[in-house]
Amino acid sequence: MSGELLAAPDSGGGLIDVVRRRGLLRLIVRKELKVRYRSSVLGLLWSYVRPGVQFVVFYFALGVFLGLNKQPNFVIYMFSGIILVNFFSEAFGQATRSVVANGALVKKIYLPRELFPVASVWVAIVHFLPQFLILVVACMFFGWTPSVIQLIGAVGAFVMVTILSLGLGLLFAAANVMFRDSENIVDLMLMMATWLSPVLYAWYLVRDTLGETFYFFYQLNPMTIAVEIFHAAFWSPTAAVRMAPEGARLPDNLLSLWLPVGLLISLLILALGQSVFRRLEGRFAQEL
Prior knowledge:
Blueprint: H1 2-5, H2 15-20, H3 22-36, H4 46-64, H5 74-101, H6 103-108, H7 115-141, H8 148-178, H9 181-193, H10 203-219, H11 222-242, H12 254-280, H13 284-287
């Protein structure tokens, strides 16, 4: 028993310790939600308002004014990608800031520092669920008839984005403690996230414009894979109602090849993020 009490802070199990302290994780998640909506009239309803406003702006700016809504069910195509990018942006962005934002706790007591990025990702999941509900209701309105394989693929895509967000969040949360410029780098990355994935344009435009070689590396982006799988699960089953199947075409081998590739890349990023985080966490209290 005394050996456990005297164990060095950096001898923990990383993310395994987070699993062991699930109760503490729940407390931090509840605290984050209460702090975010303190003195807020709408509270969690902001999870509906923000994507709703973003959706309206994109729909009119890109769909109506630029004529992109000629694509069948452009609303579903756009929104299914937007909610996934919104989730990634919130999870990654807040995880990056989480350790610095909880600097007072980090300096006073020892607890697994991974709790803070993980809690940020959980809060992002809470905010994702209302947006996902809106998407499902809209899909049903347009005659959504997905297959079991498509739904399994959508779950796999969401898991992939969650792993990717946590891996990058751990990496940049550690970097942010050492260099506050990391927040600005992450903001630039998130600004580009919408345009580096086929959210507002069709995937084949990248291939046809820039060639197969560039498209191969473009396709290695896990967010690109996840957005395309969400299109396959939510948009394609509705678009096929109104047009020939070839008009709703999506990249080949999405589930058999690209989903495993995206999961592998995301897991490698998670391993890198955890490794860097563990290496630097012993200096967090001193730097903060």
